[in-house]
Design brief:
It is built from five helices and seven strands.
Length: 202
C-alpha cells in the first residue's frame, strides 16, 4: 500500500517519485510481481516517515513505466485500475500493507439518453469552471474536456479533472454508483463556479 496526500481515480495516470527506503523496497517487490499496489489517501499525518492515519477506500495502481536514478530513487508512471476497500491494515513492516477487496462498480441504472445528458452537464460545468479559474489567474485545465462515453469510466475521469481538494475527491471515490458520482460532482462544480463568479464580480 502506498499512502499519499492525493487521490488516485481508476483510469487516471499517476506519476510517482519514490525516494523513501521503505517505498523503494515496496516498488522492488511490486516490479518483481504483477506491477500493482494500492494507493490510499492519508487522512492525518504525512507521506514520509509513517505514523499517518489512512482512508480505507483507495485504488489499485499499475506500473506502466519505471526508471531508476543512480542514487536508487525511482520514477514511476502508474495508472489507476480499480477501486479497493481495506479490510485490515497489517503491520508496516517493511512497508505499509493491507488485506483488501475489490470495490465493485455497479452498472449505471439509467438509459443512454439520461446518461449522456448527465455527462454533458458535467463536461459543461468543468469547462466553465476552468475558464473562470483562468480568468482569476488560478491553475486551470486549458484543453478540451474529453472523457469516455462509458459512464463509470467517465465519472472517474471527470472527477480527476475537477479542481477539488483531496477530501472532496475522496468523497467522490467512495461513491459506488457512477451516476450518483456524476451528480455529486456536478453539485460540487456548481458550488465552485458560484465562488469563482463571486470573486470575478469583486
Amino acid at each position: 500500500m502506498f499512502p499519499l496526500g492525493s487521490v488516485l481515480f481508476p483510469h487516471v495516470v499517476l506519476p510517482l517519485h519514490v525516494f523513501e527506503p521503505r517505498y523503494r523496497a515496496l516498488v522492488d517487490d511490486v516490479l518483481a510481481a504483477d506491477g500493482r499496489f494500492g494507493v490510499v489517501l492519508i487522512e492525518r499525518g504525512h507521506e514520509v516517515g509513517g505514523g499517518d492515519t489512512r482512508f480505507t477506500v483507495g485504488t489499485v495502481a499499475e506500473v506502466v513505466q519505471a526508471g531508476r536514478f543512480p542514487d536508487g530513487r525511482l520514477a514511476l508512471t502508474t495508472v489507476g485500475v480499480e477501486r479497493i476497500g481495506v479490510v485490515e491494515w497489517l503491520p508496516d513492516d517493511p512497508y505499509p500493507r493491507a488485506r483488501v477487496v475489490v470495490r465493485p462498480e455497479p452498472e449505471p441504472d439509467v438509459d443512454a439518453a439520461t446518461g449522456a445528458e448527465l455527462l454533458a452537464g458535467v463536461r459543461d460545468r468543468l469547462a466553465r469552471l476552468h475558464g473562470l479559474r483562468a480568468e482569476l489567474g488560478l491553475p486551470a485545465f486549458a484543453g478540451d474536456v474529453v472523457v469516455s462515453s462509458d459512464l463509470v469510466r467517465a465519472s472517474h475521469e471527470a472527477a480527476c479533472l475537477a479542481p477539488l481538494g483531496p477530501l472532496d475527491a475522496q468523497a467522490l471515490l467512495e461513491v459506488d454508483d457512477a451516476t450518483d458520482r456524476l451528480r455529486t460532482l456536478g453539485d460540487a462544480l456548481d458550488a465552485e463556479i458560484e465562488v469563482c463568479t463571486f470573486r470575478l464580480q469583486g
